[in-house]
Design a protein that fits this description.
Layout lengths: L10 H19 L2 H16 L4 H12 L5 H21 L15 E5 L1 H10 L3 E5 L7 H7 L6 E4 L5 H15 L5 E3 L2 H12 L3 E5 L8 E5 L2 E5 L2 H9 L3 E10 L2 E6 L11 H22 L23
Helix pairs in contact: 1-2, 1-7, 2-4, 9-10
Length: 310
């Protein structure tokens, strides 16, 4: 291969990767609980001062209007702490053990649902959201014999992207497909399901070309792929998320499959199932608002107040 064919890595990508590698090395050198606490503390201090925190505040005023300014500020700080803890725990996920009596590790609620699915076999869709430590979800589910493929948007920096991919593979313990978001990736994911595979999807972020469903009573453009694939294959849709119950201490919560509508109207069934998934996610968020990533613009701009209120 000629040198002209080798992609050049930009200098700023190398510098970003060096910084990311140094931070991850620091977290890896610490015990899991200490890494979690350090990450959470730093993110809370830095993140709450960033302009994007105003997005979270506006989202909270729209979704949970009964909260006052003090409560919103507490939740936004908690969002940043959860995000920082997730990053701090990332290098340790592959070494966290299930059912440890105390300290770092993870436990499960609803494990019998996964055991039953593993025994029955066949295609299955797992749906979740950016709640708690969502990076633990693939590793935890894989421990039940159900490693799942995922959709993936590559990081802008290819060196950082490679680091993230390596950490995820280390956590899961097996190689699983990663499908690029978009039509080509959706076709490949459907083919994977048709072969009896498992697919996990985080479905809580805005998709401009999705379908309109409601979230906290407001229109929220939502990806329709999960509903479309589930209805085509009539396969289970199993919701689950990972709660944070302490520093590097997590709980996988698995719920029974969401019933699949079967009215004979494909588009209506797709909209109903998409809404049912959003309703599950909203319930999780309401239980612990600071555990969700409120930092993205989930709702149309014209719904969001432009000024902070007290």
């Amino acid at each position: 291969m000629s040198s002209a064919a080798v992609p050049r890595i930009k200098l700023h990508h190398r510098l970003e990767a060096l910084a990311a590698r140094s931070v991850l090395a620091l977290f890896r050198a610490l015990p899991p609980a200490a890494a979690s606490t350090l990450g959470g503390t730093l993110a809370r201090i830095i993140g709450t001062r960033l302009p994007v925190s105003r997005v979270a505040d506006r989202n909270l005023r729209l979704a949970l209007p009964a909260l006052d300014a003090t409560e919103r500020k507490r939740i936004v700080a908690g969002v940043w702490e959860n995000l920082g803890r997730t990053v701090g725990e990332f290098p340790h996920l592959g070494r966290l053990r299930r059912d440890t009596p105390s300290g770092p590790g993870w436990e499960v609620r609803g494990g019998e649902i996964l055991e039953r699915q593993a025994a029955e076999g066949g295609p299955v869709l797992f749906c979740s959201a950016h709640i708690g430590n969502w990076e633990m979800l693939p590793a935890a589910v894989a421990s039940f014999g159900l490693p799942f493929a995922s959709f993936y948007r590559a990081a802008g920096n290819p060196l950082v992207d490679a680091m993230i991919g390596a950490l995820r593979r280390d956590a899961i313990g097996v190689e699983v497909p990663m499908f690029a978001k978009g039509q080509r990736g959706a076709r490949a994911a459907l083919a994977y399901l048709l072969r009896g595979g498992s697919l996990g999807m985080l479905v809580d972020q805005k998709m401009n070309d999705g379908i309109e469903a409601r979230l906290f009573g407001h229109p929220a453009m939502t990806a329709p792929a999960l509903a479309a694939m589930a209805l085509r294959l009539r396969c289970p849709v199993i919701p689950g998320h990972v709660e944070r119950i302490g520093p590097a201490r997590l709980r996988l919560v698995v719920e029974p499959p969401i019933p699949l509508p079967d009215s004979g109207d494909r588009l209506a069934d797709q909209a109903r199932l998409t809404q049912n998934v959003n309703d599950v996610i909203e319930r999780w968020i309401r239980e612990k608002p600071e555990s969700w990533l409120w930092l993205h613009r989930r709702w149309p701009k014209d719904l969001l107040p432009n000024r902070a209120s007290t």
